[in-house]
Amino acid sequence: xxxxxxxxxxxxxxxxxxxxxxxxxxxxxxxxxxxxxxxxxxxxxxxxxxxxxxxxxxxxxxxxxxxxxxxxxxxxxxxxxxxxxxxxxxxxxxxxxxxxxxxxxxxxxxxxxxxxxxxxxxxxxxxxxxxxxxxxxxxxxxxxxxxxxxxxxxxxxxxxxxxxxxxxxxxxxxxxxxxxxxxxxxxxxxxxxxxxxxxxxxxxxxxxxxxxxxxxxxxxxxxxxxxxxxxxxxxxxxxxxxxxxxxxxxxxxxxxxxxxxxxxxxxxxxxxxxxxxxxxxxxxxxxxxxxxxxxxxxxxxxxxxxxxxxxxxxxxxxxxxxxxxxxxxxxxxxxxxxxxxxxxxxxxxxxxxxxxxxxxxxxxxxxxxxxxxxxxxxxxxxxxxxxxxxxxxxxxxxxxxxxx
Length: 404
Prior knowledge:
Elements: E1 17-22, E2 34-39, E3 44-49, H1 57-68, E4 73-80, H2 86-104, E5 111-118, H3 125-137, H4 144-150, E6 159-167, E7 170-179, E8 192-201, H5 203-216, E9 232-245, H6 253-273, E10 281-289, H7 292-304, H8 306-313, H9 320-327, E11 339-342, E12 345-349, E13 352-353, H10 359-366, E14 370-376, E15 382-389, H11 393-400
Parallel strand pairs: 4-5, 8-9, 10-14
Antiparallel strand pairs: 1-2, 2-4, 3-9, 6-7, 7-8, 10-15, 11-12, 11-14, 12-13
Helix pairs in contact: 1-2, 2-3, 5-6, 7-9
């Protein structure tokens, strides 16, 4: 069960991209689990990948291929992560890419593979290869919603969003989808995410856009503090609309940047709203810090704390847990200058219980499905925000039964 409004608006097609989906029976029967993105010639394609040192075989290939070639296809399977599989995993991932390259007349390095699912099990590459023809036959511009469903694992809802912006008579479209509900603590992006625009954006500039926006969106969410072995976020600019944009000074840059940001923020927040077993969506804002890094450390300490997260699940206004987490974040601050709000209720000022605060006020806020924690450190001008969820009984059940 997800928290709040997770209904998707129409996912708009992107000129220059077609998507095909099929059942390859990677892990389960009667489930769409293989997805192919076909990308037009001369598109700009950039990625950010997990910083987990035990990164999956497909992640290793993505890093290698994108350095030396222009991708034409993305190949995505659900049900098997192909991580912790050693040289065998590399060979199987490469074999699926080679099979798709052979069928489409391109180089193997123009296929980027992505996998998600159980870690430590051999990839059934034969099943993926057998499903390629059906996926290619299904290629269509309007398959974004179907793709959002097909890349899901423990997700309970698909995740996607579109934005359009019109500048000087030119209409640009941005559409993105993602998957993720558990093993969410980004250290680059988190999950699998695929975002595209029809704008004509220089590759170097597009990489800067992706890195910057990821750090404000996917790198600011957490469900359980675990960074996946398979995280990848891919941004594509097909170049089918408008003139070349190769600088932040271009008159169209800011509006397109904001549209990409809104798409990525929306789908990042949808991941938290669908956190495994989540019943609360929690925004943790830390302001008044000396640096943004300090604020992020404190926000993440609070967002990761099992004691804080279980208190929110129980609707228990045990605000001391918030202070304790802030205090062990490794940031030097003067507690006598700290104030804390839960939504509109001030619970702490000058490092102690706020005047007029009552347990009933805290209980009222904690019972809400969407709650904000705002900590003002009173030390400076920096701020940062992290999005998280509570920790429920169902999180344990879902992950205890994950391989069954």
